[in-house]
Amino acid sequence: MVQNKSLVLAKHPVGYPVPGSDLITTSSEFDLNQAPPPGGLIVKTNYLSFDPYQRGRMRAATGLYTTGYPLNSPITNNAILTVLSSDNPRFKAGDVITTNAEFSEYQIITKERAELEQSPGGGNAGVRLLKNPLGLDPKLFLGALGMSGLTAYSSLYEIGKPKKGEVIFISAASGAVGQVVGQLAKREGLKVIGSVGSDEKLQYIKEELGFDAGFNYKKEKPDEALNRILGELGEEGLNIYYDNVGGEQLDAALGALSTFGRIVSCGSVSQTSKKPGETHGIQNMPLVVGKRLTIRGFIVFDPDMGGKYYEEHQNNLQKWIKDGEIKIKMAVTDGIDNAAEGLVGMLKGENFGKAVLKIADL
Amino acid sequence: MVQNKSLVLAKHPVGYPVPGSDLITTSSEFDLNQAPPPGGLIVKTNYLSFDPYQRGRMRAATGLYTTGYPLNSPITNNAILTVLSSDNPRFKAGDVITTNAEFSEYQIITKERAELEQSPGGGNAGVRLLKNPLGLDPKLFLGALGMSGLTAYSSLYEIGKPKKGEVIFISAASGAVGQVVGQLAKREGLKVIGSVGSDEKLQYIKEELGFDAGFNYKKEKPDEALNRILGELGEEGLNIYYDNVGGEQLDAALGALSTFGRIVSCGSVSQTSKKPGETHGIQNMPLVVGKRLTIRGFIVFDPDMGGKYYEEHQNNLQKWIKDGEIKIKMAVTDGIDNAAEGLVGMLKGENFGKAVLKIADL
């Protein structure tokens, strides 16, 4: 028997989740030597992903995402795990797999799940063998080579429709999605402007990732920053806004977009943890008509998104990361005891790079 | 010599334009017997269109529409006119033409304009012979068979993508665009919900136009009204919101749309005459991601809009109006002396139906 710790949703948060109150760590006994269930697996958790959409799943059911997290159960997200024992012919002990897993150190995978192939980006409960032919850091498969990277890749092309010489503005530009979008856009010959929440991140996107310009939204108002930067770049306006945050930055982007501009609506992390009455009302929506803007929200599991780009994304990104053409920064939280703090820190923008939880290295 | 009165923009309005201050009526002498300029025309104005986009053109130049109205000149819009004399082989005295004309009782058309074919919806300065084979009310060619009708037709199909059994909500539902959109949607087998600003209009869209439901936005809050109506119709949410007004109704529609819903952004007349600080900040933009909504602004002159649907629109609408399958309500203001009041009344929603100015009947 071992102690098996889990991160559990105890209450629906109001505002940012509070570790120890909304999110608590529980412990129970787990028998590592038990037989797997018929057709199932016993697995050990190595890495779990922290993603902003998890905040949405902590709400009381709204129907917006397929399921909210049930109360008093471990929360879940994409994970990399090692098979300890298997009663399923698809997998054997020692295999490294990805699936949507509990935030628990050990867990059981049922026959139904073990027999289902994981969909691109991890949109179902299925399981996939980790395919890592170039020997990359496995944590990348929770980020640039996982859901957030596929999110970036598919939506930039499907919705953003980038063209050489255009100007793109990306919020949360050093985050899991933003850093991939920005480097892809540079490869396509766009001018890239990023917003971040610290001077350290600003230096990083400009000096390490080669973005053309950026600003720290905590120090400069987004509308003023965009005006300043567009002037410095000699550009009239934005062609694409890749929106990870919503709120004031979305408003500023609506003001700075040129005619026929596109907004890729990926997230609104600046608003989703706001309490009622604290949210930012968007003032610039009337500009959508005169500028003929298109705003499109998506989820990577949508029919024309992740699945359509999955092979291309894996083939290109694995190669470009191996070659050093695309750099990926990760923010690793160590251990289940720190998981709640890591998750809330990511929601507050305190992470620097793609946020992951390490339970045990491979 | 006759007196030739014109409606002139004297100042850029703040809020709603003020007749007698922002918009004034001027008069000058006009020689009806003068020779037309070489290659040009002398014309008499019969009807002029009032459209919400004209408010945008009364601003100081913003770059959003191709041109703002110059100060101290007559404003312009689509018109129906009679040729008094012609030096151009395309036209002869007595011809009835459409062009983008001054709000003046009489005017001169230059050779350059007389030689240019008017583009669909009236997007250029060209001139077209009115083609009215079914002998319909000529004022219709400023509305249902003109720019606002083509706006409705092209955007409903190109952006709204209506499918039988879906639910559409249309604001300003008895207006120039809304009444056409709603009746087209009924023909396509959709359930149609309309919002209007008076009980008389509400009765009209339900009893005369056959809309399934509606509400008076001055008496019922839009979010509560949509919830009530969706419940009564046994529907979970909207599939399309056809937005003519922006503001609170846009916010309510964002809340009531189902996944993969579309917003056709045609106008925001509730906001464009608001003074700074009075506009409504949109709270529900974060729902765009989770619901995977698409919001698209357009102008009828855009490449994939009016021109693409022009023939189809003329052929179908002329026939359906002649047959009585589609009913068109018009609000006629009589005489240039009343033009400013008519235009401002339309901006305030005081008109009932497509607003036009009559100078002289054909």
Automatic annotation (TrEMBL), chains A, B:
Q: Pfam families this protein is in?
A: ADH_N_2, ADH_zinc_N
Boundaries of every Enoyl reductase (ER) domain copy: 20-357
Task: Identify the stretch annotated as signal peptide in this record.
Answer: none
Q: Which Gene Ontology MF annotations are present?
A: oxidoreductase activity, acting on the CH-CH group of donors, NAD or NADP as acceptor
Alphabetical UniProt keywords: Oxidoreductase
What is this protein called in UniProt? Answer: NAD(P)-binding protein
